[in-house]
């Protein structure tokens, strides 16, 4: 075969192959114009990863941020920004809440603590939502910004619905909506979107699993009631002025959520309990995970110096500046006794009991350490990112949950024998030592999380590619209303078929009563006849 | 740059690229050992397409078939077969049913016809399930076959759960199960698997959409009752002997369905109404669709001779041997008047009124004709395959539904303005002419189905690749129990939280009554005191 023919064959082959591939490879969306309304703080970490990918694929991004933003810089090569005035800083508000919350937790579990924590949480929610609603009013009042938003002809709004500002703005601009979501303050977004039988779907924050006994199901229903209360009397009122003033006919937040085109859910069913879902939910759990990169030389040396014992890494996330001093000291003294090396991301005062085997750092390359073969255990607070990375790299987790969904996240690992929870109120030298030794020496923890890792990686498509695909899908088709059910257009009694049941019940009752009446009539006539015969 | 360096660079580049890709590309499963228990007849057409793909990817297939099989040959390069004795032929049974059913339909819609059709359907279901249950007993009784099944160490059972034989066999052999399913005789499989609020999810066979008024919701609930009745009193009893004799502790069909690992659903949400779904449901609607191939020369000449008017193609599926004579004649005379050319797959007596523009054929390359740019309208019975191919190629459908899900399939096109239904009882020259002209000249039909085509093709992954991925996933992980909810392990009153509601209701009642009692007590005391003072 001459070179010429071979090349021709090759060209033809490649052409046929590409033609076949192209049948199901959708056209790329170059130059999509996306308006992003993120939540500040740790939620931004996730949103930014998605924005980096969208930017890399040629999309034009505009990010709305508050003037005293905590995490979101005004200038970035990724996006142009629109800055609005905000009375208070989200950072200060949340920071104060977290410290107070942690203090209460240290007092130990009791009904009183639970009640105080709940009230504290509800009042913070109210503050946060009011803050963002007021800030959004500032945007609506700024004619220059509004004109620019209208003229920019965005393809969609990408928002984190933990606060509803992005949803209201999208409604006003009549734009399709893609949500980047883990949970919303009115409960898991699923509860808004998909049937969620309370018998096997634990309410977020309840600390329950999908296997509930009777008492736990009662507890789940009570938590559900709290969440309904919170939505109706804490969250919704914050947006009342905003909705009534700027949206024709008003709006409520649940309806706005239900109108979203695509929900990018930062979860999946290796991590989460299986449950009903909807066609417009895309599970992108672990979308931020990447293979580990080599460590900096000094860190690599430290890690290798651990030899066969391996390394423990510990971090309690970006939100916590300092653990209570006594807790930090107890933990340090346990670490000091271990043959392992320890890398501990710790801010604040240096624990006095620190051992030679423990390296205190301000920051650590968490994913690269998790992916390092020397890493044995991850001591973590249970933030979604950390837990997903632990699953991806298959490292068992000793979890000390602090706030929000962290307990629920860790519970999912514990339920699968891939991690163990230590409540902040219970952390002391003894419990911490017990916990860490259990994770180090009981092989099942590693086996279980490595099975989770294999399942997580075995997906038809990488979660990040899924996320980008569906954002571009909404751009290509100007929304995805065909993936939304009719459910949300119905009044609740129709949705639950209560009107139909009432009709059928009435029909059956009438039928039964008529039958009884007829029989009575017939019996009476007979009796009368018998009597008259006897007479 | 020398050739050597360039090659090295290339090799490195390719290596890095492949390494990156491999993170989320799962290992292939060569040599999976799959036991297939298909349903005979038109369902086999779909199953075979999936088997061809699995065979091409190196899997080893064993197909169980009846000795007088209708569609499934004993010898095939795709699979080795296990043949069992069957008293009656499925073909004869179903053939007789279809002719009788069509005759009844021609009598026009009335409550009496509906009642007779339903009774006819129920009695046929009973016959079919009994036939397959008895045949399965023959398999269990054949020691040679059973030994061979046990020794073959299959990785999974792939079955069509329209009849439950495959499920029972999988339960006995303790094997993971993958279902290839469109609907099951006890209603849409979704009703077994996922929450299906009757307020917006039409029961299969009800002829309803997802937008129902009050009366339609009443109708939907009545249809649901029929289906429950059918499952409990028609389907389940057929398998009682089989379950009790061969499965330890007995079995019921719904539970066996709920234990399946993966449901490959031959549907998607471009075609079907959006609804709640489950993590272990994979929508593979249109998985059989492929780009059109060139037509045979004579057919291409005929198609081209139509010029600007284009071509109409008509087929009523493989199950119908002959349309009633008078209907065929009326249709032929309408075709004769049209400027289009017509290709009509028609068996039985040649219509006397046939025009020169109409080509009668025994068989036609349906997908290639649907994908031909000359094709204007598809006259079809509404079988799932044909409808999916019409969507894929974007050709509007004039539907004459005959049995089973055909009306429901066509209704989904009609609802989206992509097709029109003509009931068999209403087909005459006038209605057929009206219908065909509407589809030819009203542009919206073509626009709507072409929009559906664009949406259908815009998927992250081709449906066939999805199907194969999930079959191989079950092989790799020996099942997928982590995708199944806890729902099916609960008694119904716990699933619906009725026990919890009863407790809370009792608690509220007791609380109210105690309060009333306390008040009464206090009031009485006060009255007594006042009285005693007065005295």
TrEMBL record, chains A, B:
PROSITE patterns the UniProt entry points to: UDPGT
Family membership noted in the UniProt record: Belongs to the UDP-glycosyltransferase family.
SUPFAM superfamilies: UDP-Glycosyltransferase/glycogen phosphorylase
Alphabetical list of Gene3D superfamilies matching this protein: Glycogen Phosphorylase B
EC number: 2.4.1.17
Subcellular compartments: Membrane
InterPro entries: UDP-glycosyltransferase, UDP_glucos_trans, UDP_glycos_trans_CS
Protein topology in the membrane: Single-pass membrane protein
Keywords recorded for this protein, A-Z: Glycosyltransferase, Membrane, Signal, Transferase, Transmembrane, Transmembrane helix
Secretion signal span: 1-31
CC annotations in GO: membrane
Pfam families, sorted: UDPGT
Catalytic activity: glucuronate acceptor + UDP-alpha-D-glucuronate = acceptor beta-D-glucuronoside + UDP + H(+)
Protein name: UDP-glucuronosyltransferase
Gene Ontology MF terms in the entry: glucuronosyltransferase activity
Top-level EC class: transferase
Residue stretches spanning the membrane: 500-523
UniProt cross-references to CDD domains, sorted A to Z: GT1_Gtf-like
């Amino acid at each position: 075969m001459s070179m010429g023919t071979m090349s021709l064959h090759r060209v033809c082959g490649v052409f046929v192959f590409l033609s076949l591939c192209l049948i199901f490879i959708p056209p790329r969306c170059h130059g999509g114009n996306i308006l992003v309304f993120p939540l500040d703080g740790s939620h931004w970490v996730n949103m930014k990863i998605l924005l980096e990918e969208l930017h890399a694929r040629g999309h034009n991004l505009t990010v709305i941020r508050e003037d005293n933003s905590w995490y979101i810089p005004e200038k970035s090569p990724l996006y142009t920004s629109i800055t609005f005035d905000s009375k208070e800083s989200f950072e200060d508000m949340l920071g104060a809440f977290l410290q107070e919350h942690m203090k209460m937790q240290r007092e130990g579990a009791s009904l009183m603590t639970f009640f105080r924590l709940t009230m504290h949480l509800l009042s913070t929610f109210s503050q946060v939502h009011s803050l963002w609603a007021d800030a959004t009013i500032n945007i609506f009042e700024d004619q220059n910004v509004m004109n620019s938003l209208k003229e920019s002809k965005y393809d969609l709004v990408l928002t984190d619905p933990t606060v509803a500002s992005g949803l209201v703005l999208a409604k006003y601009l009549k734009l399709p909506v893609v949500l980047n979501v883990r949970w919303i303050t009115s409960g898991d977004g699923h509860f808004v979107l998909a049937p969620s039988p309370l018998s096997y779907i634990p309410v977020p924050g309840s600390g329950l699993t999908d296997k509930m006994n009777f008492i736990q199901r009662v507890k789940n229903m009570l938590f559900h009631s709290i969440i309904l209360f919170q939505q109706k009397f804490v969250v919704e009122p914050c947006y009342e002025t905003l909705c009534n003033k700027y949206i024709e006919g008003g709006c409520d937040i649940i309806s706005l959520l239900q109108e979203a085109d695509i929900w990018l859910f930062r979860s999946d069913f290796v991590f989460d309990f299986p449950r009903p879902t909807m066609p417009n939910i895309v599970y992108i759990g672990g979308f931020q995970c990447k293979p580990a990169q080599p460590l900096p030389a000094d860190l690599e040396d430290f890690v290798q110096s651990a030899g066969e014992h391996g390394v423990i890494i510990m971090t309690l996330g970006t939100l916590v500046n300092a653990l209570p001093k006594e807790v930090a000291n107890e933990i340090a003294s346990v670490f000091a006794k271990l043959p392992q090396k320890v890398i501990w991301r710790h801010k604040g005062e240096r624990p006095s009991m620190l051992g030679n085997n423990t390296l205190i750092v301000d920051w650590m390359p968490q994913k690269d350490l998790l992916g390092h073969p020397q890493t044995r255990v991850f001591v973590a607070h249970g933030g979604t990112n950390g837990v997903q990375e632990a699953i991806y790299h298959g490292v068992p987790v000793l979890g000390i949950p602090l706030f929000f969904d962290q307990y629920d996240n860790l519970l999912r690992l514990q339920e699968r024998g891939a991690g163990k929870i230590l409540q902040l109120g219970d952390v002391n030298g003894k419990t911490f030592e017990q916990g860490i030794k259990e994770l180090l020496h009981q092989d099942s923890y590693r086996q279980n999380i490595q099975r989770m890792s294999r399942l997580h990686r075995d997906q038809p498509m990488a979660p990040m590619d899924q996320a980008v695909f569906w954002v571009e899908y909404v751009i290509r088709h100007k929304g995805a209303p065909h993936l939304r059910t009719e459910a949300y257009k119905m009044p609740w009694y129709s949705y639950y078929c209560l009107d139909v049941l009432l009709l059928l019940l009435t029909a059956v009752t009438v039928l039964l009563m008529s039958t009884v009446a007829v029989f009575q009539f017939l019996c009476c006539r007979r009796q009368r006849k018998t009597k008259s015969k006897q007479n």
